[in-house]
Amino acid sequence: MVREYVVDGEEGLRHLEQTAQKIRKDGQGKKYDCVIGVSGGVDSTYVAYRVKKLGLRPLAVHLDNGWDSELAVKNIEETLKRLDIDLYTEVLDWEEFKDIQISFLKASTPDSEIPTDHAINALLGNLAQKIGVKYVIIGSNVRTETHLPRAWSQGHLDWKYIREIQKKFGKQPFHTFPHIGFFTYYLRMVTQKRVEILNYLGYNKKGSPARFTGGTWLAVLRRQALRIHLYPLLSGIHPARKIRL
To answer: Which domains, ranges and CATH numbers included, belong to the chain?
Structure first.
């Protein structure tokens, strides 16, 4: 699978630039030309940096499932402010999502994070459709995220699977939870394109070339954490622009 999806070196960079040219062309006349998912972690932060470096105009999308740490939120705001990227945040209904999580625990499924992953995928597609863009750029990385047995984690895009678990073990029906139905899934395979740019960058989280001003991304995040705690004491700080759609 790695050889099939990962393109390293100069060839990978050429492929990525060709993809960026197409995104820029298709997005002419629009405020944004793609959407990107952001979590506050290393992978999505690096994606935001590289997307901006490619000259794209992304809308950053974040899903708050109730488990966001303060540091992750501050990392998102600090990074996007510096990169001049707009942010849209969707906050899940906590009581509804908590019930879904409990249902997956009761069902003893191998991966209780599937509801969150499904909601993230649904939200990215929903926002791309709403603002009229085709490209969804994500931080998935075949090299480091496909080495576990499939039986340990599958069904991320299977709404029927999630719905049936909630129906059997949950206490309340779905009301606001973002989801991808059967027909929507196949429609978006035609109308939208997911781009996993880390597969073309020889990306390695520990030895990543990701830099703003030098150093590894772990060092960058440490410096961000220091700024988060010191800035309020030293001066005013303006968060990333948050928009309503």
So the answer is: 2-234 (3.40.50.1100)
